[in-house]
Write a structure and sequence with these properties.
The structure is a homodimer. By secondary structure, chain A is α/β, with parallel strands linked by helices. Chain A has helices at about 15-30, 45-55, 75-80, 100-110, 150, 155-160, 180-190, 205-220; strands at about 5, 35-40, 60-70, 85-90, 115-120, 135-140, 160-165, 195. The first copy, chain A, has a single domain (about 20-215), classed as Rossmann fold. Chain A contains eight helices and eight strands; from the N terminus they run E-H-E-H-E-H-E-H-E-E-H-H-E-H-E-H. In chain A, helix 7 (about 180-190) links the parallel strand 7 (about 160-165) and strand 8. In chain A, helix 2 (about 45-55) packs across helix 8 (about 205-220). The model of chain A is unreliable at about 5-10 (pLDDT under 50).
Chain lengths: ~220, ~220
């Protein structure tokens, strides 16, 4: 499957929240659910998509927007799932805002899609500050990054609607206390669903996919 | 040992390069070497300092500035080495510029120090765009992040003067090709020294400390 490389520019930041709400409204009218996936570089956003998309593609029509400062390696990889994929180049920007997301969605086309997944720039700081217009924000934290990250990057965990703890297969190599991590996340965002997974082995991916499938249906039916 | 928490604000960005050069000149006059340490969140900046400082503290008088958006966990940890430590809160900013670094150095005091280590905000994107006034930039990439990071975050590897590949002890858990990684880094930054280390076990830390000790002496003698 082919994909496009789109050069996008930063929108008007001051109007971002209004743009984001307008975009969500438009997605709603088209019955499309936008999921914004954020994490540090190397936490496993792309490999999580590789596990997620095949499990959902029978029930849902899926599109993916891969945002990167440079390169198109992720778009090439994700295109192998058969999903409709475009690459967004942010031109050095460390995040996406609602206008950049809207431009990407126009290029991708979403009138015939149930689920669009936006893989944001790998960054645990800046993307948290900009509402992209997504219906839900998913944050991935991988075990090797450490269980203290909610203390250091609180905004990212505060804006998350769902949290994936990736690389559980490597847990034996690291001093990662999942209970302590969950406590720290819930102190910032009480009751947020947390799914420990391994995007390498597929362990734990099924419950996460069930959650996402349900979210898309609720959005479309409401 | 006690440490201070300083609230700093973003300086005038347009003049950043000039500010950075002026700061380097001032450091030079005082015989102080400033090392700017950058990486993704969770790559092991703090644990690398915990291995590095005790090995150098007999020969060098060392100060540390811990920059974080929030929290003071890193400063508390590093203070245990006996180094003079201050915590810089960036007030939500995702990077440090030269003026913020200058304010931090004034608070720390560096007239009596040989080496000041700045632990920048955990972010593989934004800090690469701002010259802090450091004499050298060290970048840490950890094995679990993957060997493709130079392709996705080229600026960070282009501004690096030295590169540490951390968490080598966990290499067996991950598909990380060190040779391929080195090739990708050297394509961006030919000849840059690269030290594979484990901040957990101390493996490989000695050659990195030798390199840093030599850099400080050259700066002071030149």
């Amino acid at each position: 499957m082919e994909f496009k490389v789109i050069e996008i520019k930063q929108g008007v930041l001051s109007a971002n929240d209004r743009d984001a709400d307008a975009l969500r409204q438009k997605l709603k009218e088209n019955g499309a659910f936008l999921l914004n996936v954020m994490s540090s570089p190397g936490s496993g956003k792309t490999s999580t998509l590789l596990q997620t998309i095949p499990r959902l593609s029978e029930a849902l029509r899926i599109g993916v927007m891969e945002a990167d400062i440079d390169s198109d390696v992720d778009a090439r990889t994700v295109a192998s799932t058969g999903a409709r994929v475009i690459q967004l180049h942010t031109g050095g920007m460390c995040h996406l805002d609602a206008e950049m997301t809207r431009q990407g969605l126009e290029e991708l086309g979403y009138g015939d899609l149930d689920l669009v997944i936006l893989e944001n720039v790998g960054n645990l700081v800046c993307p948290a500050e900009f509402d992209t217009g997504a219906v839900k924000n998913a944050v991935i934290l991988s075990v090797p990054e450490g269980d203290d990250k909610p203390l250091k990057y609180p905004l990212m965990f505060t804006v998350a609607d769902v949290l994936l703890v990736n690389k559980m297969d490597a847990a034996a190599c690291f001093d990662f206390d999942l209970d302590r991590f969950v406590q720290r996340v819930h102190a910032l965002r009480p009751g947020i669903p947390i799914f420990p997974i391994s995007a390498k082995t597929g362990e734990g991916v099924e419950p996460w996919c069930d959650w996402l499938r349900q979210q898309v249906r609720q959005w479309q039916d409401a």
